[in-house]
Amino acid sequence: VEEHVNETSQLFRLLLNSTSDVIFILSTNWDILEFNSAAEGFFGMKHDTVLNQNFIQLFVPKVLRTKTKKQLDLILTKPEMHKIKMKVAIVEGNFTFTGTLAGQGIQ
User: Taking Cα atoms as reference points, which of 62, 35, 38, 60 lies closest to residue 49?
Assistant: First the structure.
């Protein structure tokens, strides 16, 4: 069983890092659980640096955090796809991130 878990984990990591799409996986508290290599390049931050840090605190400008958290919290209450426009901060300044965020609703 442990060998199967290790093999599955390696395949997941390979898939996650073989795409040019930015992928990050967040907890229900918006902590970063995964951050692929495309995300590292896009945000200019390493996987180990952002892991377990709060996405909103790390990337969203302070004045927009409350509004952004409310928008993101919708994902937890509704299982359908959401298109959310939000501003996030990167090393060189601010930019607008527009993307489709999918979430599994919590019943």
Answer: 35
> What is the DSSP track for 39-59?
HHHHHT--HHHHTTSBHHHHH
- At residue 102, the 3 state secondary structure works out as coil
pLDDT tens by residue, 48-94: 999 999 999 998 888 889 988 887 887 777 666 555 555 555 544 55
Q: Where are the beta strands (DSSP E) in 36-105?
A: 82-90, 93-101
- Structure confidence at residue 21 (pLDDT): 81
DSSP 4: H
Which long-range contacts link 35-44 to residues 24+ away (Cβ below 8 Å)? Answer: 42/90, 43/90, 43/91, 44/90, 44/91, 44/92
Q: Please give the pLDDT value at position 54.
A: 94
Structure tokens at 50: 């952002």
Of 93 and 37, the structure prediction assigns the larger pLDDT to 37
Q: For residue 90, which of 25, 18, 27, 22 has the smallest C-alpha distance? A: 22
